[in-house]
Amino acid sequence: MTSVESMLSIRMRRHIVDADFDVSLDSPGVTVLFGPSGAGKSTILRCIAGLDRIASGLLALGDQVLDDGERGHVRARHRAVGYMFQDLALFPHLDVAQNVAYGLHALPRPAREARVAEALRSAGVAGFEGRKIGELSGGEAQRVALARTLAPRPRLLLLDEPLSALDAPTRLSLRQELRQLILAAGIPAIIVTHDRDEALSLADRLVVLIDGRVRQIGAPAEVFEHPADRDVARVVGMENTVSATVVGANPGGLLLRVGRRELLARSEPTPVPAGGEVFICIRAGDVGIERPSPDDAATAPANRLACTITMVTEESSIVRIDLDAGFPLIAFVTRRDHAVAGFHIGMSVVGVIEPSALHLVRP
Fold first, then answer.
1. To 5 degrees, how large is the angle CA 34–CA 37–CA 38?
2. Where do the domains of the chain lie, and which CATH numbers do they carry?
3. Bigger pLDDT: 1 or 185?
4. From CA 65, how far away is CA 9, in angstroms rounded?
């Protein structure tokens, strides 16, 4: 069991943030603060780092109180916390070694040089000591900034939107590499991001913030597949959220009415009685589109919905299809499937949704 001495405890109250969660310092795992812009993620990071004060509550690293909103406030340089800024904040007039050594002035020169080499090696840029900052690619600058954060050997790493300044291909290639570098360093980390793919690929544990409040904490797959409420569902990418009325249970699952349509959900038993209201959450990727067949009219299989296409939007890797299913419904299809099927506005299709793809949350 994790002791208080090996926890970062966050009980902070601020004008725009009301957060309450712990982070274990026992393992080099990655906690991701995830949510839309303005949710308070970076504010929490800055308070942990000591760059901002909390109004009330408690920030404690192990048995050391960092901030209690009153007199108890440990200065940033005494917190044993490494902070990697969103813009990296590398000094262009210093070379790589000098950047990484910044803040290590108390060490004798041989120890300082050894620490710089160790940090660069841990960040995957060994041998870059003499390089100028202006000569680095975006990915190399990212690694140098990580090396500078690692060099003082902090107890905790804080990374604020670490990949946001990179172009999309570099961001994609560095995503998994960043996670491996952090785990290899053996230091627990808190990363801020509003990018769903980054949250899924980087996190061991996800803390979802919306409007300054923690709304859900859990493993990434659990949070993304089973959001706690409608707002979390929207943030994690459940493109379809629609209100429904519970009709009742049958052997196949729970029967729901959405407008004039009925849908079957194969989900956990819900305490909502017949006639009660729920929200149905469905990922657009879980909505299939087929051409109508005579069997649809004859048997009306569960969750096969006659639809009309109202919008077709081509994106970089997928095509978004907006449907009128008696209620608004969004589907994602591959560009190949779109080209083969020739989906167009006004086309009659059948929307197909597996009962297990319907996730229910209370209003």
1. 105
2. 4-227 (3.40.50.300), 238-361 (2.40.50.100)
3. 185
4. 9
